[in-house]
């Protein structure tokens, strides 16, 4: 397996067509999904030469936690869809690779089991449920298990219509459950319905689509963990995030799975970086598939890049080993891109390295 694309092809051969479509798919016409890749491809690197690159280092720290590279796993629901062990395999993989793992609220293994399998930093992602007490309980369990931050996903007041899932009648298989939440809050995720996927239907029932900036204080008062907002695509919202006490933002269009016409994450990144101006963490996800993509988003000012689907492909193809290989491959490719562009240290990766011609 020499590149991420090989893991993608291998995964397609392993997964059922319905699960494959759920993972690969986006909302609407899948234009935001395509835009993420197009934006990264449009950027080109302006390499510098005759720099001593005999010692390159990709190592960094994120919110105080050491990482082998500025690389993390984006939150994704139900890792058991890709391999039987699910999130404990991903935690083992992330630990081996020195990457950060963001665990989805809809993880299919318990927070405690995931923490036991982990040897690197863990964050917990939340959707704001109408049942607020469930959020407080999850936040407390995460803190007790050693998770280091909460990531509130703010681009999904409800799950968007994803045509592939409507067509396939996607629902979460009965033996794969969001085990960290009370079963009563999750039952509709498993029930097939006409005209909408089960997860879209579930989100309309269970997500609180009325929350606003003013509600963030309620959550912050109930947890000691730093709060990161995922799904910020504008300077305006980045400024509001800071004003409301966020420790960071994830620049993301949800891998093209929410607002179909949303701006590509790499295109939104510069304005968010400028608005944040070093006062908080800026992470980014969406379409990152090569070491060069990592170099590009770091050059635009991201502190951390996150990958979603490639980790599912690694899990599907080879469980914990496959997922670790995906993360290691991206780290090695970043090391190579740094060497070949004359940037032995992460601090040398600046916007001067990028052109969109
Ligand atoms: C199968 C799947 C499940 C996802 N589940 C969640 C989730 O539970 N919470 C969340 O905030 N984002 C979720 N996402 C979005 C990812 O966190 C991330 O934004 C996106 O996948 C990144 O793009 P990439 O897959 O192109 O790397 C999911 C994405 C996929 C593909
Ligand atoms: O967030 C998502 O993209 C996603 O696929 C999902 C999965 C389960 C429940 C809610 C959203």
The helix content, as a percent range, equals 40-55%
Q: What is the CATH topology assignment? A: TIM Barrel
Order of helices and strands: HHHEEEEHEHEHEHHHEHEHEHEHE
What value does the average pLDDT take?
98
Largest sheet descriptor = 8 strands, parallel, barrel
> Strand arrangement, largest sheet?
4-5-6-7-8-9-10-11
Strand content: 5-15%
The first-to-last residue Cα distance is 32 Å
Shape: globular
Under CATH at level 1, the class stands as Alpha Beta
Heteromolecules bound: flavin mononucleotide, benzoyl-formic acid
Structural class: alpha/beta
Rg, please? 19 Å
Q: Using DSSP, what is the number of strands?
A: 12
- The number of helical elements comes to 13
Q: Please give the CATH architecture.
A: Alpha-Beta Barrel
Number of structural domains: 1
Q: Provide the low-confidence segments as ranges.
A: none
What would CATH call the homologous superfamily?
A: Aldolase class I
Family: Belongs to the FMN-dependent alpha-hydroxy acid dehydrogenase family.
Protein name: 4-hydroxymandelate oxidase
Pfam families: FMN_dh (PF01070)
InterPro entries: Aldolase_TIM, Alpha-hydoxy_acid_DH_FMN, FMN-dep_DH, FMN_HAD, FMN_hydac_DH_AS
Quick structural overview:
This protein has helices at 4-14, 17-24, 31-42, 87-97, 111-117, 132-144, 163-168, 198-206, 216-220, 235-243, 265-276, 291-299, 309-341; strands spanning 44-45, 60-62, 65-67, 71-73, 100-103, 122-126, 149-153, 227-232, 248-251, 281-285, 304-307, 354-355. By secondary structure, it is of the alpha/beta class.
């Amino acid at each position: 397996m020499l590149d991420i694309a090989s893991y993608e092809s291998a995964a397609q051969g392993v997964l059922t067509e319905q699960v494959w479509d759920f993972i690969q798919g986006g909302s609407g016409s899948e234009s935001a999904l395509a835009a993420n890749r197009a934006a990264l491809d449009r950027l080109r690197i302006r390499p510098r030469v005759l720099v001593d690159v005999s010692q390159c280092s990709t190592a960094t720290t994120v919110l105080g936690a050491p990482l082998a590279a500025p690389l993390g796993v984006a939150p994704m629901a139900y890792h058991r869809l890709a391999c039987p062990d699910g999130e404990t395999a991903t935690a083992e993989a992330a630990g081996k690779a020195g990457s950060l793992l963001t665990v989805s609220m809809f993880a299919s293994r318990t927070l405690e089991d995931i923490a036991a399998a982990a040897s690197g930093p863990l964050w917990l992602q939340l959707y704001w449920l109408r049942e607020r007490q469930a959020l407080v309980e999850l936040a407390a369990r995460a803190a007790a298990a050693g998770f280091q931050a909460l990531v509130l996903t703010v681009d999904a007041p409800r799950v968007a219509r994803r045509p592939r899932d409507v067509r396939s009648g996607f629902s979460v298989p009965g033996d794969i459950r969001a085990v960290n939440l009370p079963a009563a809050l999750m039952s509709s995720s498993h029930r097939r319905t006409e005209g909408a996927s089960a997860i879209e239907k579930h989100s309309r029932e269970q997500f609180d689509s009325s929350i606003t900036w003013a509600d963030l204080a309620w959550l912050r008062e109930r947890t000691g963990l730093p709060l990161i907002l995922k799904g910020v695509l504008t300077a305006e919202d980045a400024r509001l995030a800071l004003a409301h006490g966020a420790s960071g933002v994830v620049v993301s269009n949800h891998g093209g799975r929410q607002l179909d016409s949303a701006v590509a994450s790499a295109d939104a990144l510069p304005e968010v970086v400028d608005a944040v101006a070093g006062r908080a963490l800026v992470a980014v996800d969406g379409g990152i598939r090569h070491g060069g993509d990592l170099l590009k988003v770091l050059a635009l000012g991201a502190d951390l890049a996150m990958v979603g689907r490639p980790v599912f492909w690694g899990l599907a193809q080879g469980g914990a080993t496959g997922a670790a290989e995906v993360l290691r491959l991206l780290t090695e490719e970043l090391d190579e891109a740094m060497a070949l562009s004359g940037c032995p240290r992460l601090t040398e990766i600046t916007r001067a390295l990028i052109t969109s011609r």
